[in-house]
């Protein structure tokens, strides 16, 4: 069976080959992970946040995944540097991320959703770790957060089912 390559645009391919802000950040203020077991994509976002102004001073990511996953994660880090957490929450959507990279094949839209879900999980975690919730943050998870969470729960369920019987009983 042959596989037809997906029609990625030049910007996606450039960000895939030369991702911006790639790598672990040792002094991150907050770290969040999201993954999609259906396609194998995983993203970890690292954010360095100024505690006084809540401005994202630096954003980096690690990714295991396809070209679209790497490109969307990379462009998210570029889009959020210098923004406040509130502006990031309000203005960064999977549609804007997809638009910023020049579009994605429809079967890869989930990569933008996953990237924004991981980002919003990081922001929510930032405030949860400080036991405060800003008025602008909804109490309920966003669509993107729910997608990231559902994918994480599915991964946990699958990994539990695939464990050898002796590990399950421990």
State the separation between the terminal residues, measured CA to CA. Answer: 42 Å
Q: What's the structural domain tally?
A: 1
Q: Which CATH C-level class is it?
A: Alpha Beta
Flag low-confidence runs.
Answer: none
- Approximately what portion of the residues adopt beta-strand conformation? 5-15%
Label the CATH architecture: Alpha-Beta Complex
Largest sheet: 3 strands, antiparallel
The quaternary organization reads as single chain
Mean pLDDT over all positions: 87
The strand count comes to: 3
Radius of gyration: 17 Å
- What structural class should be given to the helix and strand makeup? alpha+beta
Strand order of the largest sheet: 1-2-3
Q: What is the H-and-E element order?
A: HEEEHHHHHH
In CATH terms, what is the fold-level topology?
Sufe protein. Chain: A
> Helix fraction?
40-55%
- Broad shape: globular
Supply the number of helical segments: 7
Task: Please characterize this protein's 3D structure.
The protein has 170 residues and is of the alpha+beta class. It has a single domain (10-162), classed as Sufe protein. Chain: A (Alpha-Beta Complex), CATH 3.90.1010. The protein has helices at residues 10-17, 67-80, 85-91, 94-100, 109-129, 143-162, 165-168, and strands at 30-36, 41-49, 56-64. Helix 2 crosses helix 5 and helix 4 crosses helix 5. The longest helix has 21 residues, at 109-129. The model has no long low-confidence stretch (mean pLDDT 87).
């Amino acid at each position: 069976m042959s596989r037809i390559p997906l029609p990625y645009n030049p910007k996606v391919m450039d960000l895939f080959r030369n991702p911006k802000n790639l790598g672990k950040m040792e002094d991150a203020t907050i770290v969040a992970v999201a993954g999609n077991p259906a396609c194998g994509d995983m993203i970890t976002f690292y954010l360095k946040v100024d505690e006084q102004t809540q401005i994202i001073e630096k954003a980096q990511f690690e990714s295991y995944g396809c070209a679209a996953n790497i490109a969307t994660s990379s462009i998210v880090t570029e889009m959020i540097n210098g923004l406040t957490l509130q502006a990031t929450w309000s203005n960064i959507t999977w549609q804007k991320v997809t638009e910023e990279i020049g579009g994605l094949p429809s079967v890869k839209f989930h990569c933008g959703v996953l990237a924004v879900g991981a980002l919003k999980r990081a922001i929510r975690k930032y405030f949860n770790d400080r036991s405060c919730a800003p008025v602008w943050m909804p109490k309920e998870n966003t669509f993107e957060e729910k997608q990231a969470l559902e994918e994480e729960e599915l991964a946990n369920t699958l990994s539990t089912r695939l464990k050898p019987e002796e590990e399950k009983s421990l």
